[in-house]
Every structure is written in structure tokens, then in C-alpha cells.
Amino acid sequence: LEEYRHRQSERALEKKRLQRLRHMPAVTLDGLEIELLANIEMAEDAGAALSAGAVGVGLFRSEFLFMNRRGELPDEDEQFHAYRNAVEAMHGLPVTIRTIDIGADKPLDGRGDDFETALNPALGLRAIRWSLSEPGMFLTQLRALLRASAFGPVRILIPMLAHAGEIDQTLDLIEQAKRQLDERGLPYDPGIKVGAMIEIPAAVLLLPLFLKRMDFLSIGTNDLIQYTLAIDRADNAVAHLYDPLHPAVLQLIARTIREANHAGVPVAVCGEMAGDPAMTRLLLGMGLREFSMHPAQLLRVKQEVIHADCERLNKAVDQILNCYEPDELTAALKQLTA
User: Fold this and answer.
1) What phi and psi values does residue 125 have, to the nearest 5 degrees?
2) Which pLDDT tens digit goes with each residue over 217-270?
3) Is 88 helix (H, G, I), strand (E, B) or coil?
4) Do 338 and 275 form a contact (C-beta atoms < 8 A)?
5) Whole-angstrom distance, CA of residue 138 vs CA of residue 223
6) How far from the centroid of its chain's Cα atoms is residue 55's Cα?
7) Taking the CB of residue 201, how many other CB atoms lie within 10 A of it?
8) Ramachandran area for residue 92 (φ above 0: left; ψ -120 to 50: alpha; else beta)
9) Reduced to 3 states, what is the DSSP secondary structure of residue 155?
10) Inter-axis angle of helices 135-148 and 164-184, to 10 degrees?
11) Is 0.85 surpassed by the pTM of this model?
12) Of 44, 253, 263, 273, which has the maximum CB count within 10 A?
């Protein structure tokens, strides 16, 4: 019982220490400003994001508007009000809204789609593939997103892009949605930014195309790890092989960050790695300057940021990226956090 009380007391002290960081800027020891944003699932989560000191929403998961429903999917007005509420709740801070990302571990209820019976849903008709196969539904969502952009800074994020044709179709549909709103006399931000999720190895290999066509990038590390290592995260037989520190995964992430930085294209990480304080220095050393995570993780990550020296980390990470043996990699990572 005494040990339990001691732990409770330590947790309370740690929480108090972290709360002091809320209004402190996320600046490294060598003076680099880092953007810490929040991942949210609904407008009501904006309060937690602001309480944690987030400087915006890096990922609004729009698919949660579509799930656990019985009957019709949300129409344009319902979606518009949900997005507008989130935008207004952030009081002028930027909100990045990802278009519907369904399939695999997020099947859509109330539809006749075969997500449940697909041999491998993670490789099937999901995310942007599904949206492009349902252009009417996709246009409805795009119009709602565009309308919300009249009430604050909004960016549109497209999941699971891998082909030039998918980029072309998506951008064409966004322009079509704008024309439809023009015909109705409804306002929107004509210069709204459109970005791509980098979560398939093919997207990393096609970075020159993505950097040319898209306004920003966001690395979805969860799926990038899954697809790089050919692992279904939902399959317990292989789940132990899921490894965010696999050398191939680290090289893909580092390549994306460094090429985007070189091209002057904003890049963020919005997967689980962004919210893991043990990964913060590694990502900073790769050149990452924008992290998006669950609000509950933000202050712990900020604590790592304000004690980090990016100039030193850059050199250490270069060494890590040349490690291929597990023992060698582990030793190099320990040096990073020493």
C-alpha cells in the first residue's frame, strides 16, 4: 500500500511538472521552434488539444463521422457542421482534416462493402482507393471540407496515395467540388492546401512527384511500418514483427523528411511514433519540425523537445541510419538519449 501511495504521489508530481510546460514554446536548446499539434476524432476533442498547448490540429480523422452508424451516411450539411465546429473550436489555429480513411481496421458500418470478407483488407479497397471508387460520396465530403475552410485555416489531407493517377483524380475532384460551390454561391478558401499521407513505400520512392504536386506531407508511421515489413498489425501471429526501429523503416522516414525539407515542403509525422517521447530525439535528428499526436502525449514530447540539441542529434542520427545489425542499432540509439 505504501508503494502504491508513493507511485501515486510521483505521478501527481510529474503531472504538475508537465502542466508547467503548457504555455512554454516548444523550442530546442539550439533555438529551433518545433510545432506540436494534436490528432483528434471529433470537434469535442479540440478542448483537450488546446489544454495541452497544441498549436493546431495535425490530423482530424474524418472517418469517425461515418462509423458506428445505422442507416445513411452523413450528408454534406452534417459533415460541414462537424468540420466547422472543429475549426471554430481551435480559435484560428490550423486544422488538417484527413479525408475518409476506411477499410482494414476501420470498416464502414451500414454499407454493403466487403471489408469484412476481403482476404487482406489492409491491401484492399481502402482510404483514397475507396473514395475514388465512390466519387459522389467523395465530392460530398470535399464540398463540406471546403465550406468549413471559410471559417478558419483548413488543410485537406489525402490518405494512402501511391499512384500519379490517384493524385490527378483527387486534385481534379477538388477542383470540381470548388466549381460546384461557386455555382451555389457558397464561400470557401480558394487557396486551400492539399497534402498527402506518406504511408506506403511506393510513395517514398515517388517523393519527387509528391513534392511537386502536393502542398505538404504527413507521414503515417503506423501503416508505413506495416506495409514496409509486410505485416498485418491485426494478425497476432506476426504482430511481434512490427518494429518502428527496423532500419528500413527508419531510412524511409528519414528520406521523406530530408527530401521534403530540401524542397521546402512542410512535413509532419502523425503516427504513433510522433507521440512516443522515446522517439522524439530520433525524429528531431532526422530533421522533423512538426509532430502531431494524441493530446495526452503532447506535454511529454514537449519535455523532450526543450531538452534536445538538434545540431548534435543530426550527427548522431546519421550514424544510426548506417546501422543494420540490431545490437549496433541499439547501442547507437542509447547514445542518442544519453
Assistant:
1) -85, 90
2) 999 999 999 999 999 888 889 989 999 999 999 999 999 999 999 999 999 999
3) helix
4) no
5) 22
6) 15
7) 16
8) left
9) strand
10) 60
11) yes
12) 253
Q: Measuring CA to CA, which residue among 196, 57, 44, 77 is closest to residue 144?
A: 77
Cα separation, 121 vs 264, in Å, equals 35
DSSP state for residue 67 in the 8-state scheme: S
Q: What distance in Å separates the CA atoms of residue 303 and residue 204, rounded to the nearest whole number? A: 30
Instruction: Collapse the DSSP code of 156 into the 3-class scheme (helix H, G, I; strand E, B; otherwise coil) and give the result.
Output: strand
Residue 115 confidence (pLDDT): 46
Q: Give residue limits of the domains in the chain.
A: 25-337
Is 110 within 8 Å of 209 (Cβ atoms)?
Answer: no
Site of grid cell 476501420: 106
Q: What architecture is domain 25-337?
A: Alpha-Beta Barrel (3.20)
Instruction: Output DSSP code: residue 237.
Output: T
DSSP-derived secondary structure letter, 275: G
Q: Buried b vs exposed e over 18-27: b needs ≥16 C-beta within 10 Å?
A: eeebeeeebe
Query: In whole angstroms, how far apart are CA 184 and each of 141, 177, 189, 272?
Result: 16, 11, 15, 40
CA dihedral (311, 52, 94, 274) positive or negative: positive
